[in-house]
Design a protein that fits this description.
The complex is a heterodimer of chains A (about 120) and B (about 500). Chain A is an alpha/beta fold and about 120 residues long. Chain A is built from six helices and five strands, in the order αβαβαβαβαβα. The radius of gyration of chain A is 13 Å and the shape is globular. Chain B has about 500 residues and is α+β, with helices and mostly antiparallel strands. The longest helix of chain B is centred in the first third of the chain and has 66 residues. Classes of the chains: A alpha/beta (about 120), B alpha+beta (about 500).
Chain lengths: ~120, ~500
């Protein structure tokens, strides 16, 4: 388990500081280390996306949205297992996200256990 | 009148007048002759001179100078031929001279008499004139008195006169009706007995005292009288009957109850409309607000789960659990703050003005609307100085104005190409006011810019066209102005002013 945690990086992209901090804390409690980004642009320009094994992203953000980020990563053939979390998701958006390869689509507030299981599944731990 | 008539008589019958005047000379001298003849017959003392002088005097007095002289000549002839013809020429001349001198004297007397008569006539005419004048004055005064009385009695307003001893000296029927008792019974009554001691001391007496000091005074107050609870506007005017000292107060009171109730109903309707506008705006924002509230709730929930995870480990990490629990508390509080903000905007209630920190108020709204703006890729920027002076305002109402303007800006930019930018600025304006500017880069204003402030004017598919109308009435009720202008190179700018004020001034205005 410890080997899995060290090597497999989780990235969190959300414009809300508190949500970001909460997610970081949650992952830390279950033993995953994570990096936080306040926007899709920041994530892309950091270069972390090359090593990220699991991405947790908000859908609606200033600038590039979560879905746009996913499309961008897909275009670069960088298929990171992605879990979307959103405060106002609808079925259409959910369908669009899952079709583009998302592993999970969680409306806020979400069940943390489900999120943890999804992360675990993405990391194959 | 009588002079005129005499004159007419004289002109009408000059011959008769002439005959009468000279006839009197003939008659009086004839009478003297008869008397002298009788005296002679009875051997009485000879007194023709006396009779003749009397005849001349009478003629002069009643017929004037010419007949008088004629009488004197006639008397001389009569005396010379009928009486004492035997006396000497000297004596005869002396007698004639006496008659002549007497005649001259009588001429003088008649002249004096005529002068006196003319004076008397002049004085009489003068007296008549002033008498007429007096009569006219009295008539005018009666008329004025009558009109004043009519005004007093039939005025639709209550009218009364109160003496400096606070006793009614006059009251009209309307005032009598106000208090449900005859006007006669009010006169002589003291004000305190009619309106009640407390009310008199608190409201009426101060107004009356100012009036008695010479000042026109006005109060507007709810009175409990025979007609129920009535709102009366009462004016107190000092009465100084000819002297400098105020002797009484003329009180006129108008019943404005219906008017006041109508304006209260109007104010209530405006408040209801403003509330409806706020609710509509909040309705439009439901999705954004749900997101806004969901964020901290999600974060709080995650923090709580994290806390549980730390505590349920084989070796519980209390420090980490504590950290997570604090995060949960912070996020729950943030959610509560947002809900309170929404509730404050949706609140329904009376207007309350106090110093408002506009910078803080604008930041709150911007954070509430940030998500709505993001939905349409709109940037909201508040460029405000940290040391912005406070304004005197009802914060809920001003929030509503800001909200309406920002929502309008967002609507105007939904369908335009990038960049979509909404900027809020503030700067000092004239008359100790602060000007706020909300500018967007949207579709801009219609040709007839001012039409946008009309009720039911809207360019939005689901708008009711009340937002700007309500915003303008809110700003104007604060003593400010709200207007719009183009925001070059494109978009619109909305400007409004609010009075700058400190706590003390605000208390004064309350």
């Amino acid at each position: 388990m410890s080997r899995c945690e060290e090597n497999k990086l989780v990235a969190i992209v959300d414009d809300d500081d508190d949500v970001r901090a909460a997610l970081h804390g949650l992952l830390k409690a279950v033993g995953f280390s994570s990096h936080c980004f306040e926007s899709a642009e920041a994530f892309l320009s950091s270069g972390y996306y090359r090593t990220t094994r699991c991405l947790i992203a908000d859908i609606r953000m200033p600038g590039m949205s979560g879905l746009e980020l996913q499309a961008r990563l897909n275009a670069e053939h960088c298929r990171i297992p992605t879990i979307f979390i959103t405060a106002h998701g609808d079925e259409e958006m959910r369908f669009k996200a899952l079709r583009a390869g998302a592993v999970e689509f969680l409306p806020k507030p979400f069940d943390d256990q489900v999120l943890i299981e999804s992360v675990r599944a993405a990391l194959h731990c | 009148m009588t002079n005129g008539q005499d004159k007419t008589d004289m002109e009408a019958r000059p011959a008769w007048h002439f005959a009468r005047r000279y006839g009197l000379a003939l008659a009086s001298v004839g009478a003297a002759f008869v008397l002298e003849s009788v005296f002679l017959h009875f051997h009485l003392p000879q007194a023709f001179g006396l009779f003749a002088v009397s005849a001349i005097a009478v003629t002069f007095w009643y017929s004037g100078t010419a007949p008088g002289v004629f009488a004197a000549v006639l008397a001389s002839i009569v005396r010379d031929y009928y009486f004492e013809p035997q006396i000497s020429t000297d004596s005869r001349l002396l007698f004639d001279l006496v008659f002549l001198v007497f005649a001259l004297l009588m001429t003088r007397v008649v002249k004096e008499r005529n002068l006196l008569e003319r004076r008397v006539a002049a004085r009489t005419a003068e007296l008549m004139r002033s008498n007429d004048e007096l009569k006219r004055e009295i008539a005018e005064r009666n008329q004025a008195e009558y009109l004043t009385g009519q005004v007093f009695e039939s005025s639709p307003d209550a009218m009364l006169i109160i003496g400096t001893d606070y006793i009614y000296t006059r009251a009209n029927p309307v005032h009598a009706r106000y208090w449900g008792r005859p006007a006669d019974s009010i006169v002589g009554m003291s004000v305190t007995n009619l309106v009640g001691a407390d009310f008199f001391e608190q409201k009426i007496r101060p107004a009356l005292d100012r009036c008695f000091a010479g000042e026109d005074t006005r109060i507007e107050e709810w009175f409990d009288n025979a007609l129920g609870r009535r709102f009366l506007a009462v004016s107190y005017s000092p009465l100084r009957r000819g002297s400098e000292r105020v002797e009484a107060a003329l009180v006129i009171s108008r019943d404005l109850t219906e008017h006041v109730l109508a304006s209260e109903a109007l104010r209530q309707a405006q408040a209801d409309l403003a509330h409806a506008n706020r609710m509509t705006t909040m309705g439009e924002l439901t999705a954004s607000l749900a997101h806004e509230v969901n964020q901290p709730i999600a974060a709080a929930s995650t923090c709580a789960s994290t806390c549980v995870l730390w505590l349920t480990r084989d070796e519980p990490d209390v420090a980490e659990a504590r950290e997570a629990a604090l995060g949960a508390v912070r996020n729950a509080k943030r959610a509560a703050d947002i809900i309170n903000g929404i509730r404050a905007i949706s609140r329904k209630g009376g207007s309350r003005r106090q110093p408002v920190d506009m910078s803080e108020l604008i930041q709150e709204i911007v954070s509430l609307l940030r998500n709505e703006a993001q939905r349409y890729s709109i940037q909201i920027r508040a460029e405000l100085d940290a040391d912005l002076p406070k304004v005197v305002a009802d914060s809920v109402q001003v929030q509503q104005v800001m909200m309406n303007l920002i929502m309008n800006g967002i609507d105007a930019m939904k369908d335009v190409d990038q960049p979509r930018e909404l900027v809020i600025r503030a700067q000092p304006a004239e008359d100790r006011q602060l000007m706020f500017i909300v500018s967007d880069t949207g579709i801009g204003l219609p040709q007839q810019t001012n039409k946008i402030f009309d009720a039911f004017f809207t360019t939005k598919p689901h708008g009711i066209g009340m937002g700007l109308r309500i915003s303008r009435s809110i700003v104007e009720s604060h003593g400010g102005r709200l207007w719009a202008a183009a925001n070059p190179p494109r978009g619109a700018g909305f400007y409004f002013t609010l009075p700058i004020g400190t706590a003390i001034e605000a208390d004064g205005k309350e």
